[in-house]
Each structure stands twice: as structure tokens, then as C-alpha cells.
Design goal:
mainly alpha; extended; 2 domains; about 65% helix
């Protein structure tokens, strides 16, 4: 592993460890959920309407791990925080694997 790859991996791990901030900060500041993670119901409350395109497409993709955790929304914060980190690591691993396989495929085609 090169020096750059080690630094990149370390940076990604740090980012994964910071993901629970999306849970902790709304709790600390007594606000709604993490910025940008709104469903159509939250957008309705915030904006007063839901864009038509979003209404049509909002049910196309369902998360494989709903709420980033196999537990309920009212599960203890530490439980949810650990699963935020696990979800982040799973997501980064899936993207890294896809990038690696794509690179191998492209390298093989070039040969």
C-alpha cells in the first residue's frame, strides 16, 4: 500500500467515525434530523409543498438498512451511533470494491 493510499484510507476511516455527528448534533441543539436527510413529510413541513418530481420518485429506492440501523428510531443513542459508523464503513467498502472491479475490467480491456 502506497503512502497516498494509507492517508486516503485513514481519512475515510476518520470520516466514518464522524458520521454519528448527524445523530448527536440534532440531539444537542434540539433540532430535527440531519441536514438533507428529509423525507417528503419533512419537506412538506419545511417548504409547505413537495416538488412533483420528488413525489413521483421518492419510493423508487429503499435503503437496505432503514435508518442506518437494524433497531428502532427510539433505540439508545450509542446503539444508533455505532450502526451509523458500520453503515458508513459498509458504504465505503461497497464503493471501493466497485471502483476496484471497474479498474480491473478497464485494465483487462486495454491489454
Amino acid at each position: 500500500m502506497t503512502k497516498f493510499q494509507r492517508k486516503l484510507l485513514l481519512g475515510l476511516i476518520v470520516l466514518a467515525l464522524l458520521t454519528p455527528l448527524g445523530l448527536l448534533l440534532p440531539e444537542i441543539f434540539n433540532s430535527e434530523g440531519a441536514w438533507g436527510e428529509w423525507g417528503t413529510d419533512a419537506l412538506e413541513r419545511l417548504l409547505g409543498y413537495v416538488p412533483e418530481g420528488l413525489k413521483r420518485t421518492s419510493d423508487i429506492f429503499k435503503s437496505p438498512i432503514e435508518g442506518y440501523s437494524p433497531g428502532k428510531e427510539d433505540a439508545p443513542l450509542i446503539f444508533r451511533a455505532v450502526f451509523y459508523v458500520v453503515s458508513g464503513l459498509i458504504g465505503m467498502s461497497a464503493v471501493a470494491l466497485a471502483a476496484y472491479l471497474t479498474a480491473r475490467l478497464l485494465r483487462k480491456k486495454r491489454s
